[in-house]
């Protein structure tokens, strides 16, 4: 009995030490768990990830939210007190999508739910968030809670939107280029310029993109051999001068072997150390323009050196909205060639319809409407525009009509090219052709002279003129026909002795276009007549001067080069009609 009691007592005495040991272990574990929890809270609250525990009730009230919800301007108390319910801060346009997405995941028994949407911060600013939620269910499978993390992705979304806009602009520019006559190249700085890029519309020359990208065809190999060396020298000269860009005109062969004239606008790309790496080029087919120049050159009977009358213009790209007067969403910077800035159009200060000539605006609008109505994808037209300084220019527009998925026209993507000099050359050739027909139908000298004056005065820059012929019998030169001159002026310049100083000022070996050529007395007469520009062109027959064409302007300060070419061509043309009949004429 005593022995048993003693053993029992010893056993009992041992219990407190065991209990104390167990409590100590549990305490340590609890302490460690609390430390881990505190560390986890610190990590979460110092991160961009906000943790939520929502109840499966209407508008998702929160049972728990991490303290870093302050990143959105809210406090923990705002949510756990249910003063703010989570779905109340979801952007209205996104709420239905979020609710339907979550409901679908619950319905199919999915364990989680992921979605990107917008919420309002407490300051009512819109923020994009990414939610990743785990759906909690009870043993019966009923949803009780949602454990979720919400991450602010606003900056990422902004970057994505910027990238999307850049890609859209690139796509638009690619479409504009590929629907334009301008072919875009990127050439490497190597022999014969292998292509690193070429736009799809190279097909207008019969080639495919792959022809160049595979290097089966090198660009230098399609340039006419007679032009290649000049092109190489021009390129090298501009590189050595440190130029950024330059223009060149030369001939290339199409894939079918035909020759085409092109205008190339080249941009030289360099490394930081100045070494040239590649060339960006815009190649525009100018064959039609060159044919017109050739026709004008031939009209001078090969007696003149060919002069280029077409300006170095490049295509201006536009993106117009399908609204009244076509407001501009985009225009390339080279719109400055028309005297405008990009800002003039994109700010809405100037609408494109505002610069279309009043006499052409209705026909442009009607032609475009007809193209839309008949379902065409593109539109082409020539019309006049007003430049920034008020002058008139002819342009050729080639436009791609852009439609939405419902077929409604939303925009027009277009290229506008200045064709003023081409139009003027065509008009002058037509005047010359009609004059030739008219002169062939008469042997009356005075009628011929009147026809010549009437034809030349169709050119708007010229508003006065006269024709001198030599009278062999009286050995003098006489003003035999005139237009647009005052009677007093005509009396003073009507006739001169052939060997007089005055005669030498209207009877010259070479054309005269400067007022400074004339002696003081004649210059004074011209000033009183308010003449601001002159053209004196001799008429030669079999090496002898038989007369001169004299034209003047009261509006321009110099006769433009293309009009000089026209007048000299007229002089060569009409002398063959005048010479046979001038001796028999009665000038009295």
UniProtKB/TrEMBL annotation:
Record organism: Methanosarcina horonobensis HB-1 = JCM 15518
Topology in the lipid bilayer: Multi-pass membrane protein
Domain called PAC: residue spans: 113-165, 246-298, 379-431
NCBIfam families: sensory_box (TIGR00229)
Localization per record: Cell inner membrane
Gene Ontology molecular function terms on file: nucleotide binding; protein histidine kinase activity
Ranges of compositional bias, category Basic and acidic residues: 1-12
Pfam assignment, any one: GAF_2
EC number: 2.7.13.3
Source species, domain of life: Archaea
Species lineage: Archaea, Methanobacteriati, Methanobacteriota, Stenosarchaea group, Methanomicrobia
Catalysed reaction equations from the record: ATP + protein L-histidine = ADP + protein N-phospho-L-histidine
Region (Disordered): 1-24
Family matches, as SMART domains: PAC (SM00086)
GO-annotated cellular components: plasma membrane
Keywords: Cell inner membrane, Cell membrane, Kinase, Membrane, Nucleotide-binding, Phosphoprotein, Repeat, Transferase, Transmembrane, Transmembrane helix
Enzyme class per UniProt: transferase
Domain PAS, chain residue ranges per copy: 36-109, 205-242, 338-375
InterPro entries hit by this protein: GAF, GAF-like_dom_sf, PAC, PAS, PAS-assoc_C, PAS-like_dom_sf, PAS_fold_3, Sensor_kinase/Photoreceptor
Official protein name in the record: histidine kinase
């Amino acid at each position: 009995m005593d022995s048993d009691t003693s053993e029992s007592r010893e056993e009992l005495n041992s219990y407190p030490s065991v209990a104390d040991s167990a409590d100590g272990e549990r305490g340590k574990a609890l302490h460690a768990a609390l430390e881990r929890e505190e560390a986890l809270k610190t990590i979460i609250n110092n991160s961009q990830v906000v943790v939520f525990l929502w109840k499966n009730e209407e508008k998702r009230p929160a049972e728990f939210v991490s303290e870093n919800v302050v990143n959105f301007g809210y406090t923990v108390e705002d949510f756990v007190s249910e003063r703010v319910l989570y779905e109340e801060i979801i952007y209205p346009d996104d709420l239905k999508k979020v609710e339907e997405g979550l409901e679908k995941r619950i319905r199919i028994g999915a364990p989680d739910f992921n979605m990107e949407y917008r919420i309002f911060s407490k300051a009512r600013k819109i923020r994009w968030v990414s939610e990743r939620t785990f759906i909690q269910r009870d043993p019966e499978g009923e949803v009780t809670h949602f454990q979720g993390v919400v991450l602010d992705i606003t900056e990422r979304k902004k970057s994505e939107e910027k990238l999307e806009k850049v890609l859209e602009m690139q796509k638009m520019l690619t479409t504009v280029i590929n629907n334009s006559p301008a072919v875009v190249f990127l050439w490497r700085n190597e022999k014969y310029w292998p292509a690193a890029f070429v736009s799809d519309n190279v097909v207008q020359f019969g080639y495919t993109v792959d022809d160049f990208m595979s290097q089966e065809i090198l660009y230098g190999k399609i340039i006419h051999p007679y032009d290649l060396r000049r092109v190489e020298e021009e390129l090298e000269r501009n590189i050595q001068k440190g130029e950024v860009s330059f223009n060149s005109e030369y001939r290339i062969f199409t894939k079918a072997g035909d020759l085409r004239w092109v205008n190339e606008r080249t941009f030289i790309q360099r490394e930081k150390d100045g070494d040239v790496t590649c060339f960006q080029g815009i190649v525009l087919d100018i064959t039609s323009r060159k044919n017109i120049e050739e026709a004008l050159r031939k009209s001078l009977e090969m007696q003149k050196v060919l002069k280029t009358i077409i300006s170095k213009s490049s295509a201006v790209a536009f993106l117009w909205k399908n609204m009244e007067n076509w407001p501009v969403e985009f225009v390339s910077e080279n719109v400055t060639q028309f005297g405008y800035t990009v800002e003039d159009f994109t700010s809405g200060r100037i609408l494109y319809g505002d610069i279309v000539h009043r006499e052409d605006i209705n026909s442009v609008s009607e032609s475009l409407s007809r193209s839309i109505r008949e379902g065409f994808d593109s539109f082409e037209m020539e019309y006049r525009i007003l430049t920034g300084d008020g002058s008139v220019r002819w342009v050729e527009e080639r436009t791609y009509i852009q439609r939405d998925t419902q077929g409604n026209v939303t925009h027009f993507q277009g290229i506008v090219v200045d064709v003023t000099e081409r139009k003027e050359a065509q008009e002058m050739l037509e005047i010359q052709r009609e004059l030739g027909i008219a002169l062939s139908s008469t042997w009356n000298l005075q009628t011929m002279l009147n026809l010549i004056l009437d034809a030349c005065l169709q050119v708007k820059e010229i508003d006065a003129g006269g024709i001198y012929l030599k009278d062999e019998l009286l050995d003098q030169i006489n003003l035999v026909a005139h237009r647009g001159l005052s009677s007093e002026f005509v009396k003073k310049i009507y006739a001169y002795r052939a060997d007089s100083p005055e005669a030498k000022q209207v009877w010259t070996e070479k054309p005269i276009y400067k007022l400074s050529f004339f002696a003081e007395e004649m210059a004074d007469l011209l000033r009183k007549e308010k003449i601001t520009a002159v053209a004196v062109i001799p008429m030669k027959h079999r090496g002898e001067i038989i007369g001169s064409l004299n034209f003047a302007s009261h509006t321009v300060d110099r006769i433009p080069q293309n009009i000089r070419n026209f007048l000299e061509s007229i002089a060569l043309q009409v002398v063959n009609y005048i010479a046979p009949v001038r001796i028999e004429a009665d000038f009295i």
